[in-house]
Amino acid sequence: MAETPHPIILFDAECVLCSYNARFVLKFDRSARFRLASMQSEVGAALFRKFGIDPSDPDTIIVVEGETAKRDSDAVLSIYEGLGWPWKIAGIARIIPRALRDPIYLLIARNRYKIFGKRETCWLPPEHMRDRLL
User: Fold this and answer.
1) DSSP per-residue letters across the chain
2) Domain layout of the chain by residue ranges
3) What does the buried/exposed string (b/e) look like for 29-51 if buried means 16 or more CB atoms within 10 Å of the residue's CB?
4) What is the pLDDT of residues 26-77, one digit of tens each?
């Protein structure tokens, strides 16, 4: 399993929305804070299982920091907060109780292929950013 001092974003590389978000993170994470691992990769699948999620049928994005994992809307907010300004302003959404945020997140996550589409092959970052992919 990958050991890194960087938070790891676990995502679905076949999901169009998830891949777009991964590209967004790579573009705007100027301090190279985050690492990415797809659920289709060996590292990503192992981390999904470690946190009790079936990598063949996940309904969430996960951000792993050390031995803890954030999921659902908390994971999304932690990503944007971690990107710095102006993206960290998204953290204001934390004033909305998680009990209200997560059902909306899960509705989108469970229907992501229907809404946004599914890639035939996994997305890969550009060559100069591949070192950020685990």
Assistant:
1) ----SS-EEEE-TTBHHHHHHHHHHHHH-TT---EEEETTSHHHHHHHHHTT--TTS--S-EEEETTEEEEHHHHHHHHHHHT-TTGGGGGGGGGS-HHHHHHHHHHHHHTHHHHH-B-SS-----GGGGGGB-
2) 8-126
3) beeeebbbbbbbbebbbebbeee
4) 999 989 999 999 888 899 999 999 998 888 877 888 999 988 999 999 999 9
